[in-house]
Amino acid sequence: MTEIFTGNFTQQEPIPEDAIAAAMAVLQHGRIHRYNLAADEAGETALLEREFADQTGAAYCLAVASGGYALATALRAVGVKPGDKVLTNAFTLAPVPGSIASVGAEPVFVGVTEGLVIDLEDLAAKADQAKVLMLSHMRGHLCDMERLMEICDDAGIIVIEDCAHTMGGAWKGKASGRWGAVAAYSCQTYKHVNSGEGGLLITDDEDIAARAIIMSGSYMLYGRHLAAPGPEVFERVKYDTPNISGRMDNLRAAILRPQLRDLDRQVQRWNARYRVLEEGLRDTPGLTVVERPDEESFVGSSIQFLLLDWSPEKINAAIARCAKRGVELKWFGGAEPVAFTSRYDSWRYAPAQSLPASDRILTGVVDIRVPLTFSEDDCALIARIIKSEVSSVFQAQ
Prior knowledge:
The protein has 397 residues and is an alpha/beta fold. Helices cover 38% and strands 14% of the residues.
């Protein structure tokens, strides 16, 4: 009998009861705006910022409307101006180069390896082309961060980490987001904490923090922040930093605080499911499992595999066969962007580049979401279906 999977790849777990209670408290008192506070009230947004700074070990934190807003704010806060070039991964999601374009800067793409991380040799070769790297830890894959920082420090490159997929991850025990000058996280529904939309920015640099806070719409109310530098820092930057309102509201912050307290347990649950999928996909003809280095502590909220040197027709055939059995695969190698999948050459606001070695890899990247609504048995079933259908298409070549 042919096995069929009936789960939903976009269905998240319910918001936890303590987060619902916290949100209801905000709705009942009605003080939703970030600075609408009662006397002696810190506010959910300020408390979230203090707690996330403590959780990551950062000096400063800012909660904002989205991960993309956090990325653009980080670029402005480190001094990126219109016309500047910014290095970034060729393998990433559209909001990353989109944030670069949104500030009038120009993305310069750096290649990808078969480990789905930034190609450090290509980065070294392009290090003289820009003074900022927006490093995307795409789909939760962390590169050798020590080597990356060595390259960037030697070249005087400021590193902004896009940690949308690595909240809770680390390289050699040092958390993602704590390597560069500033980091941005996403709290969108499909990330590791869920407020529908939202973002977090952390840094140890007081000037970056002050500029980001003013840009987020603090007006002159920055004294109400709990994870901010002192007033003298704001005095240095307040007159030439634009207000681009986008700080998170108290309702979303209330939803997030309990989820962040539970992050470590959720990471363990994701990784247990990931390992079942990973093991089930091994030894599939024509399929390459992306091996995770021992130095990496990852969060398995999605899993990728490679169909290297397959024709687009064969890849589409495998995806269609899996879909008929209820398994939804996303392909990053298509000629046209579809849903959240796209390639560096999809973004025509960036100058065209030739990355033939990366093209070979990107053509073969297939992605699967791993929501926590799936059980480990579900993951074993998904792996069996993929193994069966990929094998059938490969053997027919």
